[in-house]
Design goal:
- The chain is an alpha+beta fold and 296 residues long.
- It has two domains: 88 residues, Alpha-Beta Complex (Type Iii Antifreeze Protein Isoform Hplc 12), CATH 3.90.1210; 133 residues, no CATH class.
- It is 18% helix and 28% strand.
- The chain is built from four helices and twelve strands.
- The strands form four sheets. Strands 3, 4, 5, 6, 7 and 8 form a six-stranded antiparallel beta sheet that branches.
- The protein starts with a helix and ends with a strand.
């Protein structure tokens, strides 16, 4: 009888423990659901210029406290925008698991492709390059470059001087595409024949003029370095060290020997003549004897 009672006690304890575990699980689940909500994230990496589709986006629970601004709680405004009924277009690359934010999307009504990723007010211009001009294939989409022009200087009367000059004409220019590809996740060099740059209208005019008067080259730079070069350009005399600038130092020209004016000689002080020492002689006057000085 006592053994049966012990077994019943153990069974009751197990039942109560299971019931308590279920209640605790439900409580924790409800509490967790209260602190999270549905957020649209990238199911896989989405390249810039890509229209969103159902196979690229999924909904997951996201903590409310750490939810960034501009997220989407449903898929409808992403896959079929209520006004245009067209999917939204990604303007920057979104990695797998990243929340899809409004600021990462092109304006409503934008079509897919390169035009959707151009910032408002900017333009896209294509520059023909080769393996050298294109920085050995490292001018990839998403990188930043400076634009150099190599041309021939002209005088004020538009007469061509026999002197070449190389100068940086644009700084910190974003590469939108290399050839026809706009993928930014490729870190390997790729030799292409054209690079598309994002510029302002004034910068587009400078590039168009620069490639008509000389040859262009690209200089790869650190994307975090946003400073201006400040260079005045280099010509052949400066390159060979014969010009007014040599390694950043001013070269002072030496004057011609015929034009050198020597300073007048310093006056020489004349030495004063020294007086000869006086000679003493003995003078005897009667019984008196003495000496007297006599000058020569």
């Amino acid at each position: 009888m006592s053994k049966l009672r012990a077994i019943l006690t153990i069974v009751a304890a197990l039942v109560l423990a299971s019931f308590a575990a279920v209640l605790a699980g439900r409580y924790v689940g409800n509490k967790t659901r209260q602190n999270t909500h549905q957020v649209a994230v990238a199911k896989s990496t989405i390249e810039l210029g890509t229209p969103l589709s159902a196979d690229l986006v999924t909904m997951i629970d996201w903590p409310r406290e750490s939810t960034p601004d501009g997220t989407f709680s449903t898929l409808t405004p992403l896959l079929a925008e209520p006004t245009t009924k067209a999917p939204r277009v990604v303007r920057t690359t979104i990695l797998k698991g990243e929340p899809i934010l409004e600021l990462r999307l092109a304006p409503i009504g934008s079509l897919g492709g390169l035009a959707a990723v151009i910032a408002p007010g900017n333009r896209a211009i294509t520059v023909r390059v080769n393996d050298v001009v294109g920085v050995g294939g490292f001018a990839l989409p998403g990188s930043y470059v400076d634009v150099l022009v190599n041309t021939t200087q002209t005088s004020g009367s538009n007469t061509v001087l026999d002197e070449s000059i190389s100068k940086i004409v644009l700084n910190h220019i974003l590469v939108l595409a290399a050839a026809e590809e706009i993928s930014r996740d490729d870190s390997k060099p790729k030799v292409v024949n054209a690079v598309t740059l994002e510029v302002t209208p004034e910068q587009a005019e400078r590039i168009d003029l620069a490639r008509s008067v000389g040859t262009l080259s690209l200089v790869l730079r650190n994307p975090m370095d946003v400073g201006q070069s400040g260079s005045l350009g280099v010509d052949k005399r400066m390159l060979l060290g014969n010009g007014p600038w040599d390694r950043g130092k001013v070269a002072v020209p030496m004057p011609d020997s015929s034009e050198v004016t020597l300073p007048p000689p310093m006056p020489v002080a004349k030495a004063k003549p020294t007086r000869p020492a006086a000679e003493r002689i003995e003078v005897i006057r009667g019984t008196t004897r003495g000496t007297q000085s006599v000058e020569r």
